[in-house]
Inverse folding.
């Protein structure tokens, strides 16, 4: 298996690029930003998904280089968007145990000239649990500089609620497994309702992921969910195909 060597070559040739999926304000139906999602297109035209190559990059010691390259690329793209639009970027759990991560990210924002307040970093609960002390240092560096932090895949980890009282997140992203089943499952509907109430109570913005159906969108709007994301609102697309004029595609 040559994945590691191929990955090394792909990074050298900058063949792994960010695609962007719109984040939509559910009250105004306007795009407020994009989440960057890494895509590796191989020679056959097929894509290797990030779930496959990010772990390889981590094991091969290539994650720092890959992340720096992707973030620099995404920040450069974001510079050409209207200045209200935010760039949301994923960090994998292992990265938050690198205490220089925050400073490296800030260096890239500075080099590119993208203001920190336009950047949001998505972290998961497991990332924080792994090495809480280092995660705190990294998040503090970033938050102090004005970067926003989103708690991704909310509801699927182990100690969501303790994380919420220990850290000041700007945003909570409800995992798409809740959205996909909530209409057919009355309890799931109540869970989503409770998460939205939690967001109101904590003053944290709530995003619902994985919206695929009109009925799901409608229900989330009725419940007062702030932001939505999902194939119904827009699929991940290459930078050149983005409609950054705030107009939601649907
Ligand atoms: O489209 P989707 O297959 O893009 O993403 C699958 C998983 O990979 C998600 O958990 C997502 O957060 C993660 N992911 C996507 N892009 C990146 C990236 O640039 N860095 C990291 N660490 N994870 C990413
Ligand atoms: O872990 P994270 O939330 O960063 O990953 C987002 C993942 O969800 C990516 O793989 C992205 O491509 C995928 N995704 C985005 N919108 C939808 C959707 O509406 N339905 C499904 N099934 N996946 C989605
Ligand atoms: Mn994410
Ligand atoms: Na998520």
């Amino acid at each position: 298996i040559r994945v590691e060597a191929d990955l090394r070559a792909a990074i050298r040739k900058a063949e792994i690029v960010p695609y962007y999926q719109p984040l939509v304000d559910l009250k105004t139906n306007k795009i407020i930003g994009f989440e960057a999602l890494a895509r590796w297109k191989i020679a056959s035209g097929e894509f290797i998904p990030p779930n496959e190559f990010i772990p390889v990059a981590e094991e091969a010691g290539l994650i720092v280089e890959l992340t720096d390259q992707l973030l620099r690329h995404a920040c450069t793209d974001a510079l050409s968007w209207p200045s209200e639009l935010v760039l949301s970027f994923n960090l994998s759990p292992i990265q938050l145990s690198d205490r220089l991560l925050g400073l490296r990210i800030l260096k890239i924002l500075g080099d590119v000239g993208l203001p920190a307040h336009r950047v949001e970093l998505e972290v998961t609960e497991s990332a924080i649990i792994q090495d809480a002390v280092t995660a705190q240092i990294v998040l503090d560096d970033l938050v102090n500089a004005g970067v926003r932090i989103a708690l991704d895949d909310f509801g699927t980890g182990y100690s969501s609620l303790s994380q919420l009282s220990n850290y000041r997140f700007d945003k909570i992203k409800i995992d798409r497994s809740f959205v996909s089943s909530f209409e057919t499952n009355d309890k799931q509907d109540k869970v989503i309702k409770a998460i939205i109430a939690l967001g109101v109570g904590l003053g944290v913005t709530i995003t619902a992921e994985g919206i695929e159906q009109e009925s799901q969108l409608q229900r989330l709007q009725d419940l007062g969910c702030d932001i939505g994301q999902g194939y119904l609102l827009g699929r991940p697309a290459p930078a050149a195909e983005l409609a950054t004029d705030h107009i939601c595609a649907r």
Q: What stands out?
A: The first strand starts at residue 16 and ends at 25. The chain has one domain: 3-241.
